[in-house]
Amino acid sequence: QVQLVESGGGLVQAGGSLTLSCAASGFTLDYYAIGWFLQAPGLEREGVSCISATDGSTWYTDSVKGRFLISRDNANSTVYLQMNSLKPEDTAVYYCARRLLFKVCGGGPADYDYWGRGTQVSVSS
Question: What integer pLDDT is reported at residue 85 of this predicted model?
Answer without folding.
Answer: 98
